[in-house]
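Weekly modeling sync, notes
Attendees: AB, CL, MP (scribe)

Item 1: holo prediction request
CL wants a bound-state model with adenosine-5'-triphosphate before deciding which constructs to order. AB pointed out that an apo prediction alone won't tell us much about the pocket. Agreed to run with the ligand included and paste results into these notes for async review.

Input as submitted:
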Amino acid sequence: MSDLLANLNPPQLQAVTLPPVHALILAGAGSGKTRVLTTRIAWLMSTNQVGPHGILAVTFTNKAAKEMIARLSAVVPINTRGMWIGTFHGLCNRLLRAHYREAGLPQTFQILDSADQLAMVKRLLKNLNVDDEKYPPRELCHFINAHKEQGVRAAQAEAYDNYTQKRVELYAEYENQCNREGVVDFAELLLRCFELLQRNEPLRRHYQERFRAILVDEFQDTNKLQYAWLQLLAGGGAKVFAVGDDDQSIYAFRGAEVGNMRDFERDYAGDNIIRLEQNYRSHGNILAAANALIKNNRERLGKNLWTDAGAGEPIRAFEAWSDLDEARFVVEEIRELVRDGVAPTQIALLYRSNAQSRVLENELFTKNVPYKVYGGLRFFERQEIKHALAYLRLLGNPDDDTAFLRVVNFPTRGIGARSLENLQATAHQCNSSLYNAAASLTGKAGQTVGAFIRLIEQLRVETEGLPLPEMVEHVIEKSGLAQHYRTEKEGQERLENLDELINAAATFVDDEGAIGEGGALVSFLTLASLEAGEHQAGEGQEAVQLMSVHAAKGLEFDVVFITGLEQGLFPHENSVSQGRDGLEEERRLMYVAVTRARQRLYVTCAQTRMLHGQTRYCVPSSFLDEIPEELLKKLNKKAAPAATPAYGSFGGGYAETNSSGLRVGQSVEHARFGVGVIVATEGRGADARVQVNFGAAGMKWLALEYAKLTPL
Ligand code: ATP
Ligand code: MG
């Protein structure tokens, strides 16, 4: 026990050992909030104040939950299996699985991730003949989710104009469709769970009596519904221990309310507010930069952060000519760091927008630096994995139209768009699932769709009673997916991923604690959808970590690169339209980024950048100006850029001119190769090269200094 408390500073110790009261730990980045929360759970259990059964802990990611459980098993000799530690989504899912009947859900209900949700909304609009330009599907998803996050059902939604009225009607249609199919989206997990507890008194009382201690990490990012859910569960006398940092609230765009912190202080914590002010993560200069930045925000609850770690290195700032140049610089530095013994997993490359990762990835790949991207297309979001999962979902629940449409004609079975439209119309008319409506199809469509239905039935019979990994393997093989990818040109990687899915199923089964209500398949599919929705990093083996700043929350690394610090990118241009609030949220995001670094921080920007197929000329981010000059060490650009990208070559539509005045698209003549057209330019001055397409003589890269090209 003394071990447990040994490494805490006085306020941390005070927080960990508080008597059973509601409390708020309000503290800046890296001050040990997560550590305090975990230690408190261990302390409550090891002093027998609360049993493992009585703990409910909400973490920001599933990975954080697993880490917490692992740490607890290490320090407290009890069985941590089955403890209620997880994300809001994970915990609500668990509760709904246990009480699916009371919640009005089928036992095998499936979770729609955001891509599935979008697909469903598109389908709905089409079925109802709604103009999707007037009602863009993405916006409609947002509208629906925002309402659910406020706890508002379609029936209660207010509309003061016709346009909103229509959107509310579509929301209602969407709810019906989800119920018909037996699927729930992410926001629904929470709302459904909340309503269940609110409505069902015995059930509510059961959980209220069960949970004695409720602990919440990253409290600043809870939304209104999550807060209400916590209040409901705490209604039986449980004590809520919340930790958070208002300066790190970065999900307002998704409905998070920093106001929850003030409400919590007023309604619960009262005087039990503990501030942690010592930062254990970052060296002094990094912390000073973070403090200087965040000082520019107006409404803060106010905290001071200090460290006794010493000033450390200055923050390295680099302004590149172009995004490619920036990537080269970053990768060069990384290679040097790794040569000097820094573990690649301790190096993070952060960006504001996921689209930025491509150039960085390309350079890392070219230079053979292992890397891992988080929050982009993750495993469970890959096409082939989603196809395989769709087959599995149909085995569990044939009414799942989203899964049905995903694979009814994949691999191709000669089912045309027309047939599917007919099928959808029929299903819509008789208010049934596509699967059930298929029986009424006649003619060729009847045959082809019928064959698909028989395939699913057959798969169901064949996999009955099989262990999960064998079931997955069987489905991948017999559905025709494996064969399809074997014949596809680039199918090898997809086949490997499908093998990986079988492995994932095997590992999943080994971890038997994870099998919940509804059997292994349902639990496995649940895991897949929750993971797909989670934009949070994990640990890669020996690989540099790439992720958006949002995904980096709560994590720490020895070395951090914040790239693309340009006006319009970071702060993001979308934030500008939201005025000062938007800018302040961006600044909090920047604060999160800066405070991820332990020892070394790089901030980089580029003068030109290719984004979404267009070259932009960029101005350095105003956030760079907010970092005091004396903390920065400006690294110089080389006299001439290593290379300037050849944006004009394909697709970009932008003709890059290099220093010699040659530009992409220009015709030139060469003494030996004849007439050609410039497709790319690179470098300046003595380094300048151009790529020329000489038709029959081929594509050539030519150094301008040597090759004599005559412009035509
Ligand atoms: P964030 O706001 O980024 O989520 P946090 O407040 O949750 O940060 P932690 O991640 O808990 O901070 O802690 C930051 C780092 O400091 C961790 O590496 C943690 O182990 C370490 N740490 C926390 N408290 C102490 C302490 N008393 N002594 C030594 N190290 C500590
Ligand atoms: Mg934390």
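Recorded for review: The pocket of magnesium ion (ligand 2) is lined by residues 33-34, 554 (CB under 6 Å).
Action items: CL to compare against the apo run; MP to circulate these notes.
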